[in-house]
Every structure is written in structure tokens, then in C-alpha cells.
Specification:
Distance between the termini of chain B: 73 Å
Mean pLDDT of chain A: 92
Number of helices of chain B: 7
Order of helices and strands of chain B: HEEHEEEEEEEHEEHHHEHEEEEEE
Shape of chain A: globular
CATH architecture of the largest domain in chain B: Sandwich
Distance between the termini of chain A: 42 Å
CATH topology of the largest domain in chain B: Hypothetical Protein Tm1070, Chain: A
Structural class of chain B: alpha+beta
Helix content of chain A: 55-70%
Strand content of chain A: under 5%
Strand order of the largest sheet of chain B: 13-12-14-18-17-16-15
Mean pLDDT of chain B: 89
Oligomer: heterodimer
Largest sheet of chain A: none
Radius of gyration of chain A: 21 Å
Number of helices of chain A: 21
CATH class of the largest domain in chain B: Mainly Beta
Structural class of chain A: mainly alpha
Largest interface: A-B, 73 and 60 residues
Helix content of chain B: 25-40%
């Protein structure tokens, strides 16, 4: 089933990019695109009330793949522009070696904990549990009748791949469920690395080590929770947007939109901290775009429609779009939250000293642009907006709504701040042009 | 005569031994100690020093937990120390407090919990703090830096970070980084800012990567050799056995958070956990249970049972014959 999911995603990537940018990226995008197609298939089956079995899932997956192939047709004749030169950045051997150690440790942790049984609390109440109960019920759990599953209003891309990969097995396999999650993460980060390696392999290794080496993200690389899935899809979407800035090829806007839709179907955060910032970035890009923007109308509109499919589904099924219902938008101030916020980012071990460094680089970058202190690539500076909006958004949610309790007791804030931290790092990796590292 | 007098004065000192101290970890079996003890007590003390020297009398060995209290009286589980004091009259024992990452140079408040197998408990004659020398403080700092970050079911939400002498390393390293950046700006060495920040972040991340590698090998080896996995203990193995046994419903006898219940429910599903007419009973880290022949008691419930299997973490699986 993993091969099937990868193959259908690869067919779409191959049809869209036509080897213009090499075949490696098309292979790496196979599973992430396959996961998106699969969630649409499971959503269609859920809406139609058809049971989730191997045949029904495969059949609808093929149908959705065909629709996607047809819908990318208008961009089939887009001109490739892969000859744009990128400055290669030299990396000191010691930094390269440190990066390899961090990546190897993360990989070891991810592989070993994929083989081990599911361990973390929310996996047993929400993430893997919802997938397992849905698998045995042969239908996506959208209501909490049994009391076994919490957060049944969440989008379900993560669950859909775990269900699909188990459909050929007579019993639920915990290893397969965590295995597909690991492969999906690996292919998403692999694709981002591949795209970034245009600036040098060692440089790309360093940027990836900085992201996956965030202590909390290293832990999330092993086993479940969809936070790392959301981070992976958001990074891919951002990387595609950056590729568009580099090549001016509208197919990358479409790919960015596809991965944006994947974010929206992965976690409730997707609509607020991926879709809205993406839309703002795109709006700025279009306003500042020199020449006609007509050729971008189709990929942008297509992306918006695809991302709206989750809210439509949620409304159709009577599901809340926010994780905790109406309380998520209730304004509430709690002075205790300010201290908890500082402790989470600047004292605890979830990020280590990451935010000290990241905020310093951001300040230096903004001052540097004005005073010509450091060299930057102005094509990509706008993409920083996504990470900044997401960061401000999370700050607002956790400081000004009833979600402050999840910040104070340390339940979800740290995990969610992984998204802006990763996005800002990737944007900076493209924007800054250090002479060497 | 004076030699004899001196010996009498020095005897307790000569016999004072530094007891083996362990830091609480995901594998600490608190429930076993609590459930097997006949009497228990606690005492709050505060003072400044590397270790505490206790003079005591007890008829049975005494389990001791030393919790490091903050100003509000709360304490962190993974900073708590555990030791056993041997039985005897007028015994002396030294507990090395610096084995905990919560230990600091200054005055600190501690809560000591005592558990004994004897109804008489224990008598304490004297408690003293041993001062820390400068070289020992440096050695303790290095030891704290080398300590693993605790790993628990809550680790996915927040990591506590490293502490050296109770000072969070994140703050120290972060502030040092900011000072370096300010210096580079003042010296107008702008081209060095990004490489320096990247290097410092990578170095600190490599420290956690080391822990990730240690946990990978530790967890894999534990699972392959004992069938246990950190705080989850043998629960995934028990769930597999329940499915093999064609269990219809399971009663979980357990004390503590809902973690064990949620974990067993996930791994055992579609077998459901419940109290009504269970086909099987799992005893896992419970402080309130007993078995007498074929009669198993857990809290207020009683079952006629037969043992199916015991597991490496002390859990047991029974068939319900009631």
C-alpha cells in the first residue's frame, strides 16, 4: 500500500514537472502527494458512507489521482526555468560534521522508536487510537461515541495513511502505522533537503540539522503525533513557493498549494497558521510581481479551492474547525501566561537556545538589510512573512485566549511553536547568503 | 584511657557510610515500595550542603525518597532521589544530594519520605549537612551536564532542559550567545554573526542528540531483552498476550495517572478495558492489591483468579474465574 501511495503521488509529480527539475524530486514528492490523494479518497468514502476497505480505498485513490492529473493539465505547458544560478555556500568541515552527527542521531532515534510500540499519551487517545478504531470500524471516526477517541473533530490526513497502510492486514499493525508516518516524514524532509542542496549539500545538511535538531522535533521524529507531519508539509509548501520565486514557474505555486492543502487536512492549525499566512504571502508576491500575473490565476485559485475542501467537509459533517470548539476564540488574559511563555521558549529544553539564536538572526537580518551589513537574497525575504505570522498567531492564541492553560501546563504550546521555528529557519536559509559557515 | 574515649566519640563517624543513591527515572517502581511498606512518614528539612548525614535507628531497612522542594513547596519527580538505609541501632549514613540535577550551592528545602516494613518505623537522632568544597562543586557541575534529560510520556509536550547546579543551561548558554552577538556587532564583525550563532546552536543540539542516541539504544535493548519499554513497562507485551488469549474484556488494577489505562487500551483494542465481568485481570504498578491463593483483591473489588503470566516489570496477568 505504501508503494501504491508513493506511485500515485509520483505519477502526479512526474506529469506536472516532466523531469524538468530532475527525477529525484519527483520520487521524493511521491509519498507526500500520495498521502494527500489518499485523504481525499478517505474523505469521499466517508461522505458517501462507503466502508474503508482495501478495494474501496484503492479504487477511490485511483479516481482522485486521475482527477488530479486532469486538473494539472492547464499547467502542462508551463516553461521550465531551471538554469537560474544559486550561490553555493561553503561550510566549515566541523559544522558539516556536527550536522551529520545530529541528523544521524535523529535518524537512529526515529528508526528505533518506529520499531518500538506506541508510547506517548496523545497517540493512545487521539492520533494512533483514532486510526486504529477507524480501521476496525471500517469508517473514519468523526464522533466520540465509545469514549475511546478524543479530538474526533480534527482533520485526518495522518489517520488516513495509517488506515490505508493497514488495509491489507487482517489485524492492526502498530509498526506499519508508525512506519508509514516515519517514511512520510523522511520523504518530506528529504525533498526539502534536495531543493535546498542547490546552495550546496553541506549547507543543506546544516539547515536540515538545525531544524530536526530542535530537541522537541528530534523526539517527534520517532513515533506519532501529527505536529511533525504538519511541519513537513508546511516546509514543503514553503520550499515550493521559494522555488517559484527562483524559477518563476507556476507549477511550483500549484505544488505549494497542494502541500498547503495537505497542511489543512493534517491539523486544525493548518487553516489558521498555514493557509492564512500563505494567502498573505501570495497576495504580497502577486502585488509585487513584475509583469502579467494571469498565468498564476489558475494555480492560486486551485490551491485555495483545495484548501477549502477541509472546512467544507467539516461543515458538512458538523465538525468544529478549532481544536477545542468556541473556547479557542474566547478572549482571556492571564498574566501567568507571559511568564510561562518566556519559560517555554527561553528556559525549558524543548528548543534549547534555538529561539535566542533565531531571534538574533532575524534582528540582524532586518537591520542588515537596511544598513547593508550582511548580504541577503531579496527574492526570498517575503517568505519570512509566513513564519512571522504563524509565530504571532500562536502568541496571540496562547496569550490572549483560553488556550493559556495549555501553555501554562505545558501541553501543546511547545509542539506548535515547532512550526514557526522551522518555517523561519528555512526562509532564512534561502534569504541569507553568508560567505561561509 | 583517652584513646578509648576518642574511639567512642569517633565510632559513629567511622561507620558513617555514603549510601547508594539513585535518581528517579521512568523505571522507578514507587508503587512496589509503597504497597509493600507497613509504615511511612515524612519530614521537611532545609539547609546548605552537598550531602546530608543521618544518625538513626531502625529495626528494618528504610526506603527513603528525597524530594527537592521549590519556594512553593512543589517538587519535580525526576529530581527526586531514592535510597535504602540499612537496619541497626545508631547507624550513620550519608546521602549525596548532588546526584540530583536539582541540587544547588545555596540553602535548599527538602522533603524526606520514609517507608518501612516494620510497624515501629525508625528513630532519627541527628541530621547534618556536609559542606561542598570548590573542586567538588566543579565536579558536580560537570556531572550534571552529563546527565540524561528525563524521558516520560509527557516528553512529546515539553522537555525540561539541562540544569547545572539547578541553573537552567538554556538560560546560561542563551545569554552567552546574546553577549557574543552584541560583541560581534560592536566590533563590526557582521560576517561572523550567522556562522557563530549556527555553530553554537548546533553544538547545543548535538548534546541533546547524544541523549537521543542513548535513549534509542537503551529502549531497544530494554525491549529486546526484557520486553519492557520505559514508563510503559510490559503493557504492550501484556496487550499482545491478551489478544492471543482471546480476552473479551480486561480489568486493570493500577494506581496512578490514566496513562497505563490509555496505553493498555490502545494496544489491546479491540479488547476493551472495563470493570464489568472481565475475562482477564492485569495488575500493573498498583499500591492497593493483594493475592491470597486464588483470591485477588484490588481496591474494593475481589476476583477468583488463576495466574497466566508474570512480566519483567512486575505486572501480572490473571484469568478471571469468578
Amino acid at each position: 500500500m505504501t508503494l501504491l501511495l508513493t506511485a500515485q503521488g509520483w505519477v502526479v509529480a512526474r506529469r506536472l514537472l516532466q523531469k524538468n527539475y530532475g527525477s529525484v524530486i519527483e520520487i521524493l514528492l511521491g509519498l507526500p502527494l500520495g498521502a494527500l490523494i489518499n485523504v481525499f479518497a478517505v474523505a469521499v468514502l466517508s461522505l458517501a458512507g462507503i466502508e474503508l476497505h482495501a478495494l474501496s480505498i484503492i479504487g477511490v485513490n485511483i479516481g482522485v489521482t486521475l482527477i488530479l492529473l486532469i486538473s494539472v493539465q492547464p499547467l502542462h505547458k508551463a516553461k521550465s526555468n531551471n538554469l537560474v544560478e544559486e550561490s553555493t555556500i561553503k561550510v566549515h568541515k566541523a559544522i558539516g560534521a556536527l550536522s551529520i552527527v545530529i541528523l544521524a542521531a535523529t535518524l537512529l532515534y526515529a528508526v528505533s522508536h518506529t520499531i518500538l510500540p506506541t508510547f506517548h499519551y496523545d497517540s493512545t487517545t487521539n492520533w494512533n487510537m483514532r486510526s486504529k478504531v477507524s480501521y476496525y470500524n471500517a469508517s473514519m471516526v468523526l464522533e466520540d461515541e465509545s469514549g475511546l477517541v478524543s479530538k474526533t473533530n480534527y482533520p485526518f490526513l495522518y489517520h488516513a495513511v495509517q488506515i490505508s497502510v493497514n488495509t491489507f492486514s487482517p489485524n492492526w499493525s502498530d509498526k506499519s502505522a508508525n512506519g508509514i508516518h516515519f517514511l512520510l516524514t523522511l520523504s518530506m524532509f528529504g525533498a526539502v533537503f534536495h531543493l535546498l542542496s542547490r546552495r550546496g549539500r553541506s549547507y543543506a545538511l546544516t539547515a536540515m540539522a538545525l531544524i530536526v535538531g530542535i530537541p522537541l522535533l528530534t523526539l517527534h521524529a520517532g513515533q506519532s503525533y501529527a505536529d511533525i507531519t504538519l511541519v513537513g508539509f508546511a516546509l514543503l509548501s514553503l520550499a515550493m513557493l521559494i522555488e517559484f520565486r527562483r524559477t518563476n514557474d507556476p507549477r511550483f505555486v500549484l505544488l505549494s498549494g497542494l502541500f498547503l492543502a495537505a497542511c489543512v487536512w493534517t491539523k486544525a492549525d493548518g487553516i489558521f497558521f498555514c493557509f492564512i499566512p500563505w494567502l498573505i504571502v501570495i497576495a504580497f508576491l502577486l502585488v509585487r510581481h513584475s509583469g502579467s500575473i494571469g498565468y498564476l490565476r489558475y494555480p492560486v485559485a486551485y490551491s485555495v479551492v483545495l484548501s477549502f475542501s477541509w472546512p467544507f467537509f467539516a461543515v458538512a459533517k458538523g465538525l468544529s474547525l478549532t481544536p477545542h470548539g468556541s473556547s479557542d476564540v474566547e478572549i482571556l488574559t492571564n498574566i501567568e501566561a507571559v511568564g510561562a511563555f518566556s519559560r517555554a521558549l527561553f528556559v525549558s529544553g524543548s528548543f534549547g537556545i534555538y529561539w535566542y539564536g533565531l531571534l538574533s538572526v532575524l534582528v540582524v537580518a532586518f537591520i542588515g538589510v537596511r544598513r547593508n551589513m550582511i548580504e541577503i537574497d531579496r527574492r526570498y525575504i517575503l517568505t519570512l512573512l509566513w513564519g512571522l505570522i504563524a509565530m504571532a498567531g500562536y502568541m496571540g492564541v496562547y496569550l490572549l485566549t483560553s488556550n493559556t492553560e495549555y501553555l501554562i501546563i505545558g501541553q501543546s504550546f511547545d509542539r506548535q511553536m515547532l512550526l514557526p521555528a522551522s518555517l523561519l529557519t528555512l526562509s532564512l536559509a534561502y534569504t541569507l547568503i553568508p560567505r561561509h559557515l | 584511657m583517652w584513646i578509648l574515649s576518642l574511639l567512642v566519640v569517633l565510632i559513629p563517624q567511622a561507620f558513617a557510610e555514603e549510601v547508594a543513591v539513585t535518581l528517579f527515572s521512568e523505571n522507578t517502581a514507587i508503587e512496589d515500595i509503597v504497597s509493600s511498606s507497613v509504615s511511612h512518614a515524612h519530614a521537611d528539612i532545609s539547609g546548605k550542603g552537598r550531602a546530608i548525614r543521618l544518625t538513626y535507628s531502625t529495626t528494618e531497612p528504610l526506603s527513603v525518597f528525597v524530594a527537592f522542594r521549590n519556594t512553593k513547596g512543589a517538587f519535580k519527580t525526576f529530581e527526586t532521589l531514592q535510597t535504602v538505609l540499612r537496619a541497626g541501632q545508631l547507624q550513620e549514613a550519608t546521602i549525596d544530594l548532588s546526584k540530583s540535577p536539582g541540587w544547588s550551592i545555596g540553602k535548599r528545602s527538602y522533603r524526606l519520605y520514609f517507608f518501612s516494613d516494620s510497624k515501629e518505623g525508625a528513630q532519627f537522632h541527628d541530621i547534618e549537612f556536609e559542606k561542598a568544597s570548590v573542586p567538588s562543586i566543579i565536579a558536580i557541575g560537570i556531572r550534571h551536564f552529563a546527565m540524561l534529560q528525563p524521558y516520560s510520556p509527557a516528553s512529546y509536550h515539553r522537555l525540561p532542559g539541562y540544569s547545572i547546579l539547578s541553573i537552567p543551561l538554556t538560560v546560561v548558554a542563551g545569554m552567552a550567545l546574546l553577549v557574543i552577538v552584541c560583541l560581534l556587532v560592536a566590533l563590526k564583525r557582521f560576517e561572523l554573526i550567522v556562522p557563530v550563532i549556527v555553530t553554537v546552536i548546533l553544538v547545543t543540539q548535538a548534546r541533546f542528540s547524544l541523549d537521543a542516541m542513548i535513549y534509542s539504544t537503551k529502549h531497544m535493548s530494554e525491549w529486546m531483552h526484557n520486553g519492557t519499554y520505559s514508563t510503559a513497562g510490559s503493557l504492550p507485551r501484556i496487550a499482545a498476550r491478551l489478544q492471543k488469549e482471546d480476552a473479551t474484556s480486561v480489568y486493570l488494577c493500577h494506581t496512578g495517572t490514566t496513562y497505563a489505562q490509555k496505553l493498555l487500551q490502545y494496544h489491546a483494542y479491540p479488547v476493551l478495558l472495563g470493570d464489568d465481568a472481565p475475562s482477564h485481570i492485569v495488575v500493573h504498578k498498583s499500591t492497593n492489591w493483594s493475592i491470597d491463593g486464588e483470591t485477588l483483591k484490588c481496591n474494593d473489588d475481589e476476583f477468583r483468579v488463576s495466574l497466566i503470566e508474570t512480566f519483567d516489570d512486575g505486572s501480572a496477568l490473571y484469568q478471571n474465574n469468578s
